[in-house]
Write a structure and sequence with these properties.
Mean pLDDT: 86
Low-confidence stretches: none
Largest sheet: 3 strands, parallel
Number of domains: 1
Strand order of the largest sheet: 1-2-3
Distance between the termini: 25 Å
Number of helices: 5
Order of helices and strands: HHHHEHEE
Shape: globular
Structural class: mainly alpha
Length: 121
């Protein structure tokens, strides 16, 4: 997913995440609370706008490799595939393989076809 983002944005996000988690974990805690944690307090911002930046590249890749299914293992990818499926743009099924033990709401999008979990949901 990150490699599909334009202009090195994915590499920048990866570097930012690694630096913040290592050197300023309280900053990541704030991001997590604002964007990822569920619970009371109304709606939270969606990851779809960021994920949509990779949409055309993902569709091109799916066509080029003649994919039968797209399996997301990253929450932004799950947002993108769900968004594309809901709009009829991604014509193959999309499954989300949940690799986090504490799944946050950014993993979930109603457009995805299946969710695969390591444990009982």
């Amino acid at each position: 997913m990150l490699t599909l983002l334009p202009r090195g944005l994915g590499a920048g996000l990866r570097g930012w995440y690694q630096a913040v988690v290592r050197h300023a974990p309280w900053v990541y805690a704030g991001v997590y609370d604002a964007f990822l944690r569920g619970g009371p307090g109304g709606t939270r911002p969606s990851g779809v706008p960021l994920a949509r930046l990779a949409g055309e590249r993902l569709l091109t890749l799916v066509d080029r490799v003649d994919a039968d299914v797209v399996v997301s293992v990253f929450h932004l990818a799950a947002q993108l595939t769900g968004h594309l499926r809901a709009r009829g743009r991604l014509r193959v099924p999309s499954a989300v393989y949940l690799v986090d033990f504490a799944v946050h709401r950014q993993w979930l999008h109603p457009g995805n076809d299946r969710y695969l979990c390591l444990t009982d949901a």
